[in-house]
Amino acid sequence: MLKGILDGCVLSVIEKEEVYGYELSQKLQQLGLKDISEGTIYPVLLRLQKSQWINGKMRPSDAGPNRKYYSLTDEGKKALESIREEWELLSRPITNILRGEENDINS
Amino acid sequence: MTLTVKKMVKQNNEKRNLLTPENKTYYENMLLYIRTNAFKDEKATEEVLLEMLDHLLEAQKEGKRAEEVFGKAPQQLAQDIIESLPNESVKKVMGFSLEIILTLFGWYLVAWGAPDLILKEGSTIYLGTASVSIVLIVGSLVGLIYFIFAVLKKSAFTNKKKKNKVTWGLGIIFGLVWAGVILLNIFVKPFGPAIHINYYTAFGLGCFLLLASYLFKKSREAK
């Protein structure tokens, strides 16, 4: 389950703008995911490319050298939407369960 | 803009020298572990290796150590990356194998045919002995290559002392296999139907195979 959530976070960052690996890891950290090792984004990026949710293109960066920039594909946009919906449904009950609250959220 | 595999490997070699000794060791262990996994798409492999190297170089500029960037469990990370990489297509694996076999036989025939060419004497080939030798040589080489890859992968994250031991072990095994092949050729009487060949046949065929394998290699690298 956590795997899919990290995928969603990566997709969301890429949706806003095209990023390369290092940039992506910095953005995730700035957004508060400090405990995630920077290396873990690479298996995620590979997986997302294999599912054709993102596209990687080598092009020169502002700093000069070539970097691989990632962008969302149409399929990726759809996938991100469904991850978002799923998260909306799950996030509140999970938070409650983990906090040990027994309030019935439907009431 | 896409880079060929050869160019990416070259870039990787150059950029790796910019790493601090500590970061270099960490990165190279991971590189070795990931590269020794056959049957994964070569281009995707080199792309991700180069990306991670760039990442490490940028982090290094900010004074970070590899362990802080990629974590304390590089082997696990490398394993995750291997599992996420796309598989190499069967066609490519077959093409690459064919290329290696052509090169192998090419050199074998050239070395074997060279004395004939110089002396201008033909020789007699016993098909039985020849085919058994070929099977042995190819079989032992394939086994050896596979074994080297397995050992390299296994030893990627172990210390240097152990690595030296492994290198020695490999050398000894290599020597034994080849001694076996040579002894077999000397002590087992030739058998099978005999054919006579001209003094230039073996050498010429060897050159032809080498040329073919060279063309294969060029077309593969251009992709």
From TrEMBL, chain B:
Residue spans crossing the bilayer: 93-113, 125-149, 170-191, 197-216
Name of this chain's protein: DUF1129 family protein
Highest taxon of the lineage: Bacteria
Keyword Membrane: yes
Gene3D superfamilies: c-terminal domain of poly(a) binding protein (1.10.1900.10)
SUPFAM superfamilies associated with the record: BH3980-like
UniProt KW keywords: Membrane, Transmembrane, Transmembrane helix
Keyword Plastid appears in the UniProt entry: no
